[in-house]
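Reopening closed ticket. The problem is back. First fold of the pair:
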Amino acid sequence: MTTATATAANRRAWLTDLPLLLVAAAWGSSYLAAKGVTTAQTVMAVLFLRFALVVPVLVAAGRRRLRTLDGPALRGAGVLGLILAAIFVLETYGVVHTSATNAGLIISLTMIMTPIAESRLSRTPLPRPLAAGAALSVLGVILLTQGAGFTEPSLGDLLMLCAAVARTVHVLAMSRMRGVRDADALSLTTVQLATALAVFALLCAAPGSGAAPWQAAAAFDPGDWLGLVYLAVFCTLLGFFVQMWAVRRTSPSRVSLLLGTEPVWAAATGIALAGDRPGWLGLFGVVLILAGTAWGRTALPQADGS
């Protein structure tokens, strides 16, 4: 490969990687935003409102494209939407029932789960730099989140572990489902989010689900609505649109590794806005996460530029 070709390939890779890093930053900041608008009694209501803000806009903006989806694409997007709903329910209830330390550490296991699962499915050996980079990143998460101390295993820990598995299944399914490979990304995102919204509506109606969406909305102040709009637009709509767009241009392992920098952005948000102080060991953890991501990134396929 000539120097010019390598430079062009690196440029194409960054055009895919940068949006993923921005999504990781948005998701990292979402913990603080969600904490401001969600309580144990309003989890399902907030999830419903979060998706209800964006789905009608997507349907109105892309109704002509939606008509081009064939049966396999619709079914594939619907399945992805069910997985997406499971991720949000598991993560949200998991955070409520465990410590932020345990939640951040357990969800980061997606960085290791996805490459291992992808290597097994494709029957190819796991590149050593990727394995080492992922392990280094997880070690960094341990150091970053150690300040609050670890709690005994709980129901919340199990829910977060299930969420990490669901994240892995979601990103692998996006790349391997034949029905969605060539379909319009915006239309697929719309169907996914609409499916998840339908699931949340059903769960809101179930007994013991907590406050109804209109009750939660009536209690919101302007700051709560601002936080909800941020979660809906940047962390939900743009986040999952970019993820679906990127996984079709590069590998699921690369997507998960870059999104695995989420704990770094969560820490940065906490330091800047919430006054968190991770200490020198935590800051060293940030360095390890970034180093592990960069190291693992060298072993993964670059964007194809399509």
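Second fold of the pair, where the issue appears:
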Amino acid sequence: MSDNMKILYAIATLTLLSTSAQAWQIVDRCTHSRYFGSVCTRSYVDDPVRNPAQELEDEKARRASIEKWEAFCKPKRTYDNEGVVRLVYARKGCEFGRSE
């Protein structure tokens, strides 16, 4: 292995190790006063706990919404003069999300 490759691997390794994975958000709140200047407080907000059952229910609801829209709008693919795919809908307003 050449010296240049070793240096590149070392730089890549250091870059990956120097970035930290954060499991929270940083929120800064600042207040300004003409007498006291500005005062800022920093707080850390933990990520919400994942609920797999709720995520599954949300996915089912999203799928049902998509199927309802497809049944109402009946999208069909067409190609324009330049070969770009365009969708044509059976009803007006479907390009804006109308589903009933």
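Update: turned out to be a display glitch only; the data is intact. Helices lie at 3-18, 52-73. The radius of gyration is 26 Å. Please close again.
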